């Protein structure tokens, strides 16, 4: 049954590339303000699913809506209501910090007054007051990632898609990054996060675990650990990846 506060809904969403099925009839819902983890090993189909939900790739079959818009017919409306941060750094390294903020703010439709106030607020929140004229390419990776995330929510979108956002950063920076995610969720923004770090599942309200293009488990981290009698999410994923039979 569909819930009224769902902002992402899929039903048997499938993507084929020739004979290869990248995502195989995935069905799930994401609620408003939720931190929803989309977990799985590299190649499990996470990024393919995210690209369909962002309106960047057309499904082969199935149904899906994002922020109330259809992924087949209303991709431009979807793009206007979401933020996106790719697993590969998404800002321009040959522009300064402030130039990147203003450039993407303009793309997101902010006017000059909004750009000024949002830029000042973002720079102060990240502690980058002395770095605004520095090229983004000169910043440490952790700061680049935090800046990219902050820019992706600059326009207060309904949903933000984060594709492997903490890949390649150290554990301390990962925790700082997740603090930004929690802060965005507290403002009512829905966070859809793909990751292959099983420990990051503990930070999510609910998680979906992808194995070979299919959703093999869906629930809160605690629910899945109880269901499979495991103490860690690594153990849960290990069982699922090897086709362990789940309890009803």
Outline the structure in words.
The chain is α/β, with parallel strands linked by helices and 248 residues long. Helices cover 34% and strands 26% of the residues. It has helices spanning 46-53, 75-80, 97-107, 112-126, 141-152, 171-186, 221-227, 233-241, and strands spanning 6-17, 20-31, 35-39, 61-66, 69-70, 82-85, 159-163, 190-195, 206-211, 214-219. Strands 6-7-8-3-9-10 form a six-stranded mixed beta sheet, sandwiched between helices. Strands 2-1-4-5 form a four-stranded antiparallel beta sheet.
Strand content: 25-35%
Number of strands: 10
Radius of gyration: 18 Å
Low-confidence regions: 244-248
Strand order of the largest sheet: 6-7-8-3-9-10
Mean pLDDT: 88
Count, helices = 8
* Structural class by helix and strand composition: alpha/beta
Brief descriptors of the model:
10 strands; globular; ABC_transporter-like_ATP-bd; disordered C terminus; 248 residues; alpha/beta; ABC transporter domain-containing protein; nucleotide-binding
Give the structure's gist in a few sentences.
By secondary structure, this protein is α/β, with parallel strands linked by helices. Helices cover 34% and strands 26% of the residues. The protein has helices spanning 46-53, 75-80, 97-107, 112-126, 141-152, 171-186, 221-227, 233-241; strands at residues 6-17, 20-31, 35-39, 61-66, 69-70, 82-85, 159-163, 190-195, 206-211, 214-219.
